[in-house]
Specification:
Helix content is about 50%, strand content about 10%. By secondary structure, the protein is an alpha+beta fold. It folds into 3 domains: about 130 residues, no CATH class; about 200 residues, endopeptidase fold (from Nostoc punctiforme), CATH 3.90.1720; about 80 residues, no CATH class. The strands form 3 sheets. The chain has a 7-stranded antiparallel sheet with strand order 1-11-8-4-5-6-7. It has a two-stranded antiparallel sheet with strand order 2-3. A two-stranded antiparallel sheet has the order 9-10. α1 crosses α13. It is globular.
Length: about 475
């Protein structure tokens, strides 16, 4: 009799577990309202140009030095005159053909400079001076204008890309990690970070090494180099703190050591222009406000990317919200994500707003001066491969490929998620971030696996290319290698 009762109890328990498992198999319902964008993704459409430039580099490597020097002397003289003309002109419209001429000459010089490494320092310095001129000119542009946005992107992103192609293709791996661009004056407390003098209220955009970082930096109508934003607060003892929002823990404060220890491939320091401030201490006040707010209460990460609602914040929103409290609206010209494939993939992770504030686009805000840029020489090629792989994956997304997951794992991950929610109640981060569902966590695992697998194969292909040709493949070649895998 006892055996019979035990068997019935086990059968009842087993039935309950089967029923619970079946219930936990029920897919999530999606009733979220998506704020779609009506923009147009930027496309270079210059494949012929890129191939011609690579062929120029191959030929330049065989030229006698006097011949190469003569060609570079003529181009550098022409480039210098172009920059002086733009610098001396009061206002230059974004549609002025002088900007196209500037980028054309700069791109033409790039393969020749890569073949003559003695010119690289000059090339980087020219890029720095050109960036200052471009940013100054953009102060009078309407950043809601597609022409202004495309011109600024072509110049700033395009010229940075050209510089990095020169560094990689030339094989120069000992270049200084810091480029000091413009020492915009500031009355706010200061500190030193990686040899850069930074001030309270500065904004640092950076690129992390995680797969999702590549998605954030490239999943934009204007694909960029940055995936994260931090607001710098410097206290009265000149100690720097970084107020930022992470997927894993929401809004938090990091020391300089913690900020740098969080893997970064690059970062750029930006500062509000002094001429635009009614009060010179406004940047410090905005940073200080956000610093103390981070300790007042827990602010979760905003997966929806809704920058109008401060109850939850994604990384860009931290700086945007702090400055908005003091009358400064950052991101003059909001970000748009209009590619159907990118929208579908980001929506799979909970994003609902595709007219938002993306980290890379902060560089194009004319209210901000670029102070300095840091990049890790050892990971520069990794950065390019990560970007190329993500660009190819997003091509797959635009063709209708979805991020799938194993539904049979869903019940187990939902149990883990329940445990994580308890951890969150006690203010502790968990393996599945607050605000991310079990389904989204499984999709994230799939996405990471997709990126890692293609990246490993692309890295191998890049190595084969170097052995066959004797130089690192330029970006368009890396994309082509990844497309074939």
């Amino acid at each position: 009799m006892a055996l019979h009762r035990t068997r019935n109890s086990l059968l009842a328990l087993l039935g309950s577990l089967v029923l619970l498992y079946a219930l936990l198999l029920i897919p999530d319902s999606d009733n979220s309202a998506v704020r779609k964008a009506s923009g147009t993704p930027f496309a270079w459409n210059r494949d012929t140009t890129w191939k011609r430039l690579e062929e120029t580099y191959r030929k330049a490597r065989t030229l006698d030095k006097p011949v190469l020097d003569s060609a570079l002397d003529a181009l550098s003289l022409r480039a210098g005159k172009q920059l002086l003309a733009l610098q001396d002109t009061a206002e230059v419209a974004p549609t002025d053909p002088a900007w196209d001429e500037l980028t054309s000459v700069f791109f033409t010089m790039a393969p020749l400079v890569a073949a003559d490494t003695q010119r690289i320092d000059w090339f980087v310095d020219y890029y720095t001076r050109a960036r200052i001129v471009v940013k100054k000119a953009s102060a009078s542009w309407d950043m809601d204008s597609p022409a202004a946005r495309r011109t600024l992107y072509t110049l700033l992103y395009g010229m940075r890309s050209a510089v990095e192609e020169v560094l990689l293709v030339s094989g120069k791996t000992t270049f200084p990690p810091v480029i000091l661009v413009q020492n915009e004056p500031s009355a706010c407390p200061s500190a030193v970070l990686c040899g850069i003098t930074v001030h309270s209220g500065d904004l640092l955009v950076s690129r992390g090494g995680a797969e999702v970082s590549a998605l954030i930096s490239r999943g934009n109508d204007y694909p960029g180099n940055f995936s994260h934003v931090a607001l710098l607060y410097v206290d009265s003892t000149h100690t720097p703190y970084f107020v930022e929002s992470h997927i894993e823990k929401g809004v938090a404060v990091a020391t300089a050591a913690q900020y740098l220890a969080d893997k970064k491939l690059r970062f750029m320091v930006m500062r509000p222009r002094t001429s635009l401030l009614y009060n010179a201490m406004t940047p410090h006040k905005a940073a200080q406000y956000m610093y103390y707010k981070a300790f007042e209460k827990h602010i979760p990460y905003d997966f929806k990317m809704e920058f109008h609602d401060p109850s939850a914040m994604f990384c860009s929103e931290v700086g945007s919200y702090a400055y908005r409290r003091f009358g400064i609206q950052l991101w003059q010209g909001v970000s748009t994500i209009s590619s159907a494939g990118v929208v579908n993939w980001l929506h799979a992770f909970g994003v609902e707003n595709f007219v938002t504030q993306m980290p890379s686009d902060l560089e194009y805000d004319p209210q901000l001066a670029v102070v300095a840029e840091w990049r890790d020489a050892e990971t520069l090629l990794k950065d390019h491969i990560d970007n190329a792989v993500m660009d190819v994956l997003l091509q797959h997304a635009d063709k209708g490929e979805e991020i799938t997951y194993s539904i049979w794992q869903l019940p187990f991950v939902r149990v883990v998620k329940a445990y994580c929610m308890v951890m969150n109640l006690f203010g502790k981060p968990a393996v599945i971030p607050e605000g991310m569902s079990a389904t989204q966590a499984l999709k994230n695992n799939t996405f990471v696996a997709m990126h890692v697998e293609l990246k490993q194969r692309t890295e191998h292909a890049v190595g084969e290319f170097v052995r066959a040709h004797g130089y690192t493949p330029p970006y368009w070649q890396i994309v082509g290698l990844a497309e074939k895998l």
